[in-house]
Amino acid sequence: MGIIMNFLDRFGADPTPIDCDALKKETEKLSLSALAYSMGVNRIASTLAKAEFKTYTNGEEVKKANYYRLNVAPSRNYDKVSWIKKLIHQLFWYGEALILKEGKQLVIAESFEKKRKALVDWVFSDIESDEYPFKGFYFMKDVVYVSLNNKNVKGYLDSLYSSYAEILGTSKDNFIKSGGIKGIVNLQSMQPGTDKDREKNAELLKKQFRALFENRNAIAPLPMGYSFQNLSDRIESLNTSRDFKAIIDDVFNITGAVLNIPPAVIRGELSEKDQAYLFYLSECIDPIAQTLEAALNKSYFTETEYLRGDRIKVDTSRLEHFSIFRSASAIDKLIASSMYSVNELREKVGDSKVDEGWADKHILTQNYKPIDEIEQKGEDNAEDSE
Asked: What span, in angstroms and rounded, lies between the C-alpha atoms of 293 and 270?
């Protein structure tokens, strides 16, 4: 009902009759395309919400006001998860997103106007968020502005969806028709009479066959001289429920391909989930995280501050589901090779640090000593044996 009212509001209360069947078809197209696109965008938002926003000062990781703001409560009314979902929704439905730095809050604009300028800051105005209008002008240096490389991706998909919706509608109609009863009534001879008499005969046949068509088990009496030939068994349906589902799957697969989401991930299937999910993280999530990270750093830090090590990093390394028992061997290797300390690894797997000095030390086992030291030790052992 909301879609119809929006349609009427947009085009005005014109007394011209509306084709309800056409409007229904357009609504079905919108529903299918919106469902496929929304599922993809929600999947991206839910995944990115698990990322950690790390903050650094002079190259050292710190957890202060910005860390809390980006990982816990970006604004008074939004926690991190709901904030990220709103941001990704704006980004993918409109191709761009604007974040205002209002005191200690990060406010995502739902609508705004921008004026582009080549050599000076862009200017943003007429900004509104959650039914609250922000007056005045905001310059690029004072906001976080994020945009997709291809802002028209939604428009391209809508054009493609329109074609698929026609195919889907035809497939649905054929499938429904294929389940009906089709036949021929044979007359031994033409019945005399006027057009009105023939209309009465046709109406009589319609009433007599109604029970046959509408009920699972039925018998229809025929007047003498009439016979019924069933053609339903001769008609092979070109469309089955599988064909119908295949077209819907195509829409989701194409949406996933455009968003770099593998079919197994966008539909939540388990087959080949591990490999598909790794592709999804590297080709879909990481580029978005890098785009958001660059926008935050551009807004928060000057060139001098960034080069000395002040920055924000969107860490996606822990987005893959982690099983500590399945990864025990790999954890052992990372510690033995001195790649990480015990506390560094505990933090990566989501455990709390151990308040012990040894847990922060890097350990290198004998197997990882430099070759020259191993050769020297071998020579020393040879001399001792002599």
From this structure: 31
Q: Give residue 190's identity as a one-letter amino acid code.
A: M
The answer to whether 18 touches 4, Cβ cutoff 8 Å, is no
Phi and psi dihedrals of 151, rounded to 5? -75, -20
∠ Cα 242 245 249 (to 5°): 130
Torsion of CA 66, 72, 75, 80, to 10 degrees: 120
Q: Distance between CA atoms of 232 and 182, rounded to whole angstroms?
A: 5
Q: What region does 118 belong to: left with phi over 0, alpha with psi -120 to 50, or beta? A: alpha
Q: Give Cα 196 to chain centroid, integer Å.
A: 61
Question: CB–CB of 261/41 below 8 Å?
Answer: no
Helix (H) or strand (E) holding 62: strand 60-62
How far apart, in whole angstroms, are the C-alpha atoms of residue 201 and residue 213?
Answer: 18
Count of other CB atoms within 10 angstroms of residue 86: 19
Identify the CA nearest to 11 among candidates 158, 112, 19, 165.
19
Q: Distance between terminal CA atoms of the chain?
A: 96
* Whole-angstrom distance, CA of residue 126 vs CA of residue 109: 10
DSSP designation for 114: E
CB-facing half-sphere around the CA of 291: CA atoms within 13 A: 19
Global pTM reads: 0.68
Residue of 334, 221, 249 lying closest to 32 (CA atoms)? 249
Q: How far is CA 177 from the centre of its chain?
A: 34
Q: 281: closest CA among 245, 305, 317, 257?
A: 317
Higher pLDDT among residues 317 and 106, named by residue: 106
According to DSSP H, which parts of the chain are helical? 2-11, 20-48, 65-71, 80-94, 153-178, 195-214, 241-259, 263-266, 273-280, 286-300, 303-307, 328-336, 342-348, 371-385
Neighbouring-strand partners of residue 127: 134
Q: What is the DSSP string of 266-278?
A: HTT--TTHHHHHH
The pLDDT, as a whole number, for residue 13 is 44
Q: Average the pLDDT over 251-278 and give the result.
A: 77
Among 8-17, 289-298, 348-357, name the one with the lowest average pLDDT.
8-17
